[in-house]
From TrEMBL:
This is HP domain-containing protein. InterPro entries: ADF-H/Gelsolin-like_dom_sf, Villin/Gelsolin, Villin_headpiece, Villin_headpiece_dom_sf. GO terms for biological process: actin filament severing; actin polymerization or depolymerization; barbed-end actin filament capping. The lineage of its organism: Eukaryota, Metazoa, Ecdysozoa, Nematoda, Chromadorea. GO terms for cellular component: actin cytoskeleton; cytoplasm. It comes from Mesorhabditis spiculigera. Pfam families: VHP. Residues 439-508 form the HP domain. One of its GO terms (molecular function) is actin filament binding. It comes from the Eukaryota.
Amino acid sequence: MLQPKETLIFDFGSEIYVWSGRDARKTNGNYAKEYAKKLAKNGFSCQEAMFGCEMRVERPNWTILRHLHQGIQDILFSSKFWDWQSSELKHMMRTPVVVDKYACLTPQRRDPEDQAGALASRLRASEHPAPSLNLENFDFERETKDVITEDIRFWRLKDEELEEIVRWQYRIQLSGIRRLNNGEEVERETGRERLAYFYWLGRETTPKQQGLCALKLSYMAHNMPHVRQEQGAELPVFLELFSGNLVIRQPEQKELFFVVRGSAKPECSLEQLAQIWPLRSHAVYLEAKEGQPALLHVGAHCQEVHVANGLRMAELLSMDGLCTEGKPASLLQGDDPRYEWVIAKGRTRAPRLFRLYDVDGHEVTSNQYHPSAVAAFPHAQTQLRDTILVDAGGALWVWSDGTPSTHCLDTATRYWHGREGRCTVVEKNNEPAEFKALFQEWNNWPEDAENTTPGKPTPPIGRLFIGTRLHKYLNDEDFGKEFGMSPKDFDALPAWKQNRMRQEAKLF
């Protein structure tokens, strides 16, 4: 009887219902409500008494008038039908079953240690996804085949006029085109002409400039795809448009200091450093001065691909007149006393970042990540938030902007189980130099951030968390310093003695 397109009125005397199906017209529902109000005023036609009230003339003042929609449960209305299919109605009509009164008060919860173990196993087994860009239902990955670039144009935003936009004109090659008579492959055919606009935003651009650039681009080509690219986080498909010759620098400067970025020749780029930080031992830097040959500063733990890219980019700078021609001089770490170097201890490959929540976590992806894991700086400092696991290959860092939870510490311990290297907790604003070296640049956190006293030494894992069972996160050496005994002797003590010692050590 109850159909999706119907609007029905049910008059049960003391209860009047207007029922509307999910596909019923709204106007029919409004008419039905007006008619139901008139029914409530005109009284009930039955001469029998209901609920002790005689309704020969008018209904009682407690008459119920409701408008119901299909899918919304109303127990009074549904109880009028003997065949109503509803779990609530069945529960109301069936005989109660005697159960333990405490059974429903104890929800089933997973063991926190099992949750941490499952999350750690999932993070260890995961692989970093390949950076890609989807344009018009086509995924552009690193060194995508069958894509022909036909034209590239550039614009630059100067004041409020759009004079740096990259216009990319390309075709997607259709492979497998053969002759019908002999099956020989003929000249490649291509699909339709396509356009895409990249708008690149420098690190020092203001929000006003960024918005103005996007606005001007929308006026220029509002029907074309627009791809936002930020300095330091460019996609491989964007870098490949420059064939490994992208140089990011300030104009009209005669002394330049660059860091060499990129894990492969087509993705290579030079980025000028606004401030010369302590140089990272796993990176390569290029110094250019007008009228002098270029200097290549080579870290002790850098990769060969970075050195090769640095030598090639030095030739490019000489062609642009930023330095004199000739083979650049290569200086190894420590050869030039003007610059300080720092070693990222435990870094054996490009680090991977995992962001942890209360009971879950995921990987912080990077457009600079390469399968060879040779990227010098795949992540930026700005990506640190909440609690982050930083897997540097030979060391695990647990960075947190506050007190890390026991779940995060358990996850970190299980994630690092069986691997060599130290697992260390890092508190925001108290990062050691070897941790800062994992990033290309490091700036002090804002003063209004919740930080502890600067200069506090970095404790081992677990020492920063104020909670229960924290002593289990200490290694044997730290445990002996805190309690003056081995973990085995500590476990043999009575419970009250253990609690008092943990309180004195602020590990309770």
